[in-house]
Design goal:
Blueprint: H1 2-12, H2 19-25, H3 35-56, E1 62-71, E2 74-80, H4 88-96, H5 119-131, E3 135-140, E4 147-155, E5 160-169, E6 177-185, H6 195-205, E7 210-214, E8 220-223, H7 246-255, H8 261-268, H9 274-292, H10 315-327, H11 343-353, E9 358-363, E10 367-369, E11 372-382, E12 393-398, E13 401-403, H12 411-418, E14 438-446, H13 463-514
Parallel strand pairs: 1-7, 12-14
Antiparallel strand pairs: 1-2, 2-6, 3-4, 3-6, 4-5, 7-8, 9-11, 10-11, 11-14, 12-13
Helix pairs in contact: 3-5, 6-11, 8-9, 9-10, 12-13
Length: 515
């Protein structure tokens, strides 16, 4: 009897929560740890959204970010772009529903700033949680005569947008775009992890964007574009056999429209033709035969025929197919899913942002980690007005997004620290960043950046990634070494000339007296 009461009581405490409800209670997972960081995260998510929308539709981005102080500890963030806008059918869900979007891919995919469909809706969620105020969203597409203005918030229990008011109005000469305004609890700071620093760094890796920033003091800063050329548009690719795990493979087999196992591989995967599909099945069958030798006849696994329907593959057979996928000779993934900055544009951006005497940039050939294509770019600027006494300025990016937090936990930083910089002309304490008048930019572009957490602040360490970062840095560092060497030799020669000039008169008189 007592056991029955306990069971009933326990059952009553169980309930399902929505994803919005979960993140409302765990907002730190998305980067809303404190008022200062929350403001930066909000700006980042809104600007990322605008850049992706513009680039995806062939529009040179023009983005305005405005922050105004409402009262102590309360700020209003306004971000406006010239993007394509969003169809009314999807607009409210895109901004008012977490885990809703067009960017999330379990496998395959293409390079983009957002990966989860959480970003901009989490900003609205944080705003309503800390200010109690709804967000104001204005949107217009080219096909619409008037703009739509929604005052909205998120129904946390349902993870659904809820409209407070809706009206249409004439948005002047604005052809298309989106404007979002959110009030929130925040703290405005000015240091290396500030909104201004984020915008400066965003301008470096997005040279095609024009960004206007209006600070709480009313100061207006313009970051003009340095090129009118849009970045290479990344293309969607199918998953690569090396990057698929067992659970995903089972789901793909369950929902595929392919009629046979062989056509499943050729249809659903990148770089898999008929010959590669046959090899995968052959390796799987070899594993089955080896395993069957140790099993009684009743428990032996049936060999896989390429003509089998995927619907009837057993769990044991799926495991052997995964083994085949991991061991068959498969070409590297397609690389047109990536959109790097490019060495020349990265150089122009560094020269535009920093007063330096030397710049060298490199874009490494694309490669893969766990079947996911990625590419590393590095730029080094040296001299000029950069601080010669402190550590070098390290700027990290992932898919053209600045990484301002968790520097020490990031694989990009760790690769920097593990290098011996002394042969390249910079001093360094053991296990630290080098010291000297230098700025170093590291950018990782990938269809799936392996972040250490949902807040997307640091890159996880994979051997292939750290290797590519090291090789990129070393190549740039060798150019820096040559520049510093030439500079030092020139300084030595100049000193010799000065010494000669200083004693030229005495030498001439001495020579004359000898004659």
């Amino acid at each position: 009897m007592a056991d029955s009461k306990i069971t009933k009581s326990a059952d009553q405490t169980h309930k399902q929560v929505s994803v919005a409800e979960f993140f409302e209670k765990n907002r730190h997972l998305l980067g809303f740890n404190n008022p200062a960081k929350s403001l930066l995260t909000s700006v980042k998510e809104a600007v990322d959204n605008s850049l992706d929308a513009c680039e995806g539709n062939g529009i040179l981005p023009e983005i305005t970010v405005q922050i105004s102080e409402i009262k102590s500890g309360r700020f209003k963030l306004i971000v406006e772009d010239n993007g394509p806008g969003i169809n009314q059918k999807h607009l409210l869900s895109a901004f008012g529903k977490l885990l809703y979007g067009s960017k999330f891919q379990t496998t395959g995919g293409k390079q983009g700033r957002g990966q989860q469909g959480i970003g901009i809706s989490s900003v609205i969620l944080y705003g309503q949680l800390t200010s109690g105020k709804p967000a104001v969203l204005i949107a217009k597409t080219k096909s619409e005569a008037q703009a739509h203005m929604y005052v909205m918030h998120i129904d946390v229990k349902k993870n659904e947008p809820e409209i407070v008011s809706d009206e249409q109005f004439d948005w002047g000469d604005k052809e298309c775009g989106i404007r979002i305004a959110v009030e929130m609890e925040a703290k405005y700071v000015e240091h290396k992890q500030s909104v201004l620093e984020y915008i400066k760094q965003t301008a470096i890796v997005n040279p095609h964007a024009k960004i206007t920033y209006i600070s709480p003091t009313g100061e207006k800063l313009e970051f003009p574009r340095v090129t009118d050329k849009l970045p290479l548009k990344s293309k969607l690719i199918k998953p690569h056999p090396r990057g698929v795990e067992l659970g995903v493979l089972k789901r793909m087999l369950k929902f595929t429209t392919a009629r046979t196992i062989k056509s499943f591989f050729t249809k659903e995967f990148d770089k898999v033709g008929g010959g590669t599909a046959d090899e995968i099945i052959k390796i799987a069958n070899t594993a089955i035969e080896d395993g069957n030798k140790k099993l009684p006849e009743a428990k032996r696994i049936k060999l896989i025929d390429g003509k089998f329907s995927p619907k009837y593959i057993t769990p044991d057979q799926v495991e052997t197919l995964l083994l085949g996928m991991q061991n068959a000779k498969v070409a590297r993934p397609s690389l047109d899913c990536l959109s790097p900055i490019g060495g020349e544009l990265l150089r122009k951006s560094l020269e535009s942002e920093f007063d330096v005497d030397f710049v060298h940039t490199i874009t490494r050939p694309a490669t893969v980690y766990r079947g996911n294509p990625f590419q590393i770019e590095v730029g080094i600027g040296y001299g000029g007005s950069l601080d010669a006494e402190g550590s070098v300025k390290l700027i990290r990016f992932a898919n053209k997004v600045p990484l301002l937090y968790q520097e020490g936990a990031c694989a990009l930083t760790q690769s920097m620290k593990k290098m011996n910089w002394k042969p390249y002309g910079l001093s360094q304490s053991s296990g630290s960043l080098p010291t000297g008048p230098a700025v170093i930019v590291i950018h990782m572009a990938s269809v799936w950046v392996p972040f250490t957490s949902e807040s997307k602040e640091a890159v996880s360490s994979y051997p292939n990634i750290t290797k590519e970062v090291r090789l990129s840095i070393q190549e740039c560092a060798r150019s820096l070494q040559r520049f510093i060497g030439r500079k030092r030799r020139a300084e030595i020669e100049a000193k010799k000339r000065e010494i000669f000039k200083a004693y030229a008169k005495e030498v001439a008189e001495a020579v004359t007296s000898l004659n």
